[in-house]
Amino acid sequence: MRSLIDILDFTVEEVNELIATANDIIDNPDKYCEKCKRKKLATLFFEPSTRTRLSFESAMIELGGSVIGFSAANNSSAAKGESVADTAKTISCYADIIAMRHPKEGAPLVAAQNATIPVINAGDGGHNHPTQTLTDLLTIHREKGGFENLTVGFCGDLKFGRTVHSLITALSRYSGLNVVLISPEELKLPSYIKKDVLKKNGIPYKQTTDLESVMPELDILYMTRVQRERFFNEEDYLRLKDSYILEPKKLNNAKKDLCIMHPLPRVNEISVAVDDDPRACYFKQVLYGKYIRMALILKLLEEAEK
Ligand code: NCD
Fold first, then answer.
1. Residue nearest to atom 11 of ligand 1 (CA)
2. Ligand 1 binding pocket mutation candidate from 7, 55, 57, 129 (most atoms within 8 A of CB)
3. Closest by CA position to 49, among listed 67, 73, 66
4. Whole-model pTM above 0.90?
5. Which of 48, 104, 159, 216 could lock 187 by a disulfide, CB 3.0 to 4.6 Å apart?
C-alpha cells in the first residue's frame, strides 16, 4: 500500500506530476469535484493544527468526498492508552485514506505499517512534514517557475522545525541549489541532515546567525517559528523566541523578486507590516496547500485501487 511518510517516498517525476495536477485543479476545479465521491478521509490529529488539518478536510470535500476524524489526542482512545498500530487498524475499517499528525517521530510510519489504507504523514514531532513540503514546492514552482539554481535561506528554528527538514531534503534533488542556514547557535540544523542530505549530495551551504548580512543573496527566504512545544525548558524558549523578527526595513537590501515563505503559524518572526510587500508569499502558500493535498489524495487513492 502506497503511503507518504517521507518526501523521498515520491520520485522527482511523481512530485512533478503532483504539481501538474494541482495546477490543473486550480485552473479547472469543476473537473475534480466528484473524483472522490463516496470516499472518506480520516484526519487523526494528535497535535494541534489549523492549516494542515483543515486544508486536508477542505481538499477532500472539494473532491466530493467526506471526512471523519479527531483533532486532539484527548478526543480519541489514545487517551485510554490505545497504540498507534491499533488505531490505524481500526480506522482502516472506516475510511479510505488517513492523514495523521503525531508528536512522536515515526508514529505515522507505524500507522502505515499497520493500516490497510494509505497513510499520509501530516507532521511527526520535530522530524518531517512532507505535505507542507509539497505545499512549499508548489509555491516555489508557481513563484519561480522551477527549482533549479536557487539560493534558499532557512531562518529560525532549524533544529526542531520539521518543515525545514523535509524541504531541504526535497530541494536537495535539484541542481544549482545553495542553502543558507540562519539560526541561533542552539537551534542549528541537526547534524544528521547536514551529513545525510547536504554533504552527501554535495550541496553548498553556509551557517550564520545574521539574517541581514545574507539577505541580498537570497531567492527564497523561508522563515520559521521557534517551536515552543519541543523545548525542554521555558527559559530557553523565552531567550530564543524573538531571535529573528523580519520587518520591512530588513528587506531593503533583498532581491526585488525575493519570495518570502513561512509554513505558518507565525508568532513574532514576521511583522504584519511585511504582509503588504509583494514578496510576501505565505498566505498564497496556505491556498496552494489545499490544491496540492487534493492532488495527493487523488494519487494515493488511485494507487490504492490498482
Ligand atoms: C508547521 C508544523 O506544524 O510543523 N505548521 C504547518 O503545518 N503549517 C510549522 C509550525 O508549526 O511552526
1. 265
2. 129
3. 73
4. yes
5. 159
